[in-house]
Amino acid sequence: MKPPPVPLAFRNLAHDKVRFALFASGIGFAVVLMGVQYGIMNAMLDSNTVMIQRMKCELILVNPNRASLMFPAGVSQRRVEQAKGVPGVGRVTPVYVEYQTAELRHTSADPRARTNTRRVRVIGVDPAADVFDLPGVSAADWAALNTPGTALYDRMSRAHPDQTNHRGETVFGKLEPGARTELAGQRITLVAGFEMGFDFGTDGSLVVSDRTFVQVVRPPNFGFNPVAETDLVAIKLAAGADPAATKAALRAKLGGDILVLTRDEMVAREKAFWWTNTPIGFAFGAGVVLGFVVGMVICYQILASDVADHLPEYATLKAIGYTNRYLSWVVLQEALILAAAGFVPGMAVTYGTYLVLTEMTGLPMLLTPGRFVLLLGLTIVMCVASGMMAVRKVKKVDPADVF
């Protein structure tokens, strides 16, 4: 006859509430270590893809030689015109992006600061195309960009070293509607602000019309046509068009020299470049692994100590008929209880840390459902693996040795 279930797991851990709280704190520490390292890594990768995520389109055309947005390689206007004739394509909008030569002058009442310039990301687009989702920017603000020499500015531009809040005084001085400053040596007027954030290569962003982009950022020089190529092409599908079919038709029309990607694929491609070609993936991935290993060690020590403290009880249960399988399940239940008890406060601290670091640095530290589930999975695996190692002590216990 199968013995009745006994709620040993929770009672073994919770009979001493102070000790149980310390156990949960140890697991929570490992959760915080993994969560913060993972969050910083994702924030650094996300900061380089915010611009793509804000694009209001289903498909994006990009030159395959453009490994990252920061490197120059464009799509010819001939390809842009070809894309317009493909069935399923609704709106085709060239998007110009400059990382290398655009510098914004620091505006300040201090005359010494006026000589300072910092590199910014400048995005040129047709103001009427409605290709970017920029909360806080009205239709009138977009229309104002049709005036040459005007720009939308990023309120999340990198902060001044003496400031702790990235929305205050920036390295570019006081950015506000109506302010006049210089971009690439040309006078511009700021129209309105949005929030996008800086990335690895620049300290902030500006959005200008395609006309201003040509006049200020990439003026014609030595016969060079600045709009002969566009950096990206945003494609909005026609009403009722099938995304997969339209994507296949574009690939067939444009050939292999132009990549046709969904917005999510473009984001993944950009992240993959920074993950594999910079120390980000290794450095912060190692931090996550370290947190996992630390958590395993802590959890194993907790469970091994608990098993050692209750060896007589386990031996008694084995003597009256409980199997190794049942007693092993008790230990694994303890591991799962520890995972839950440590994960909840650990994630609360992790989320609070995300909010603080976002406010201090401006990096987009987001706790998405997918990232939450991944950290939960790592915590469960960490504790269960430790439980599997601690189970060996229970299996080896012999009632004859104990009594």
Features:
403 residues, 2 domains, 9-stranded mixed sheet, two-stranded antiparallel sheet
Write the layout of secondary structure elements.
Layout: H1 8-14, H2 17-47, H3 50-53, E1 59-62, E2 75-76, H4 77-84, E3 89-98, E4 103-105, E5 117-119, E6 121-125, H5 139-144, E7 150-154, E8 180-183, E9 186-194, E10 205-209, H6 210-217, E11 229-230, E12 232-237, H7 243-254, E13 259-262, H8 263-277, H9 280-309, H10 311-319, H11 324-361, H12 369-396, H13 399-402
Parallel strand pairs: 6-10, 7-9
Antiparallel strand pairs: 1-12, 1-13, 2-11, 3-6, 3-12, 4-5, 7-10, 8-9
Descriptive report:
- With 403 residues, the protein is an alpha+beta fold.
- It folds into two domains: 8-47 and 279-402, no CATH class; 64-257, no CATH class.
- It has helices at 8-14, 17-47, 50-53, 77-84, 139-144, 210-217, 243-254, 263-277, 280-309, 311-319, 324-361, 369-396, 399-402; strands at 59-62, 75-76, 89-98, 103-105, 117-119, 121-125, 150-154, 180-183, 186-194, 205-209, 229-230, 232-237, 259-262.
- It is elongated and about 90 Å long.
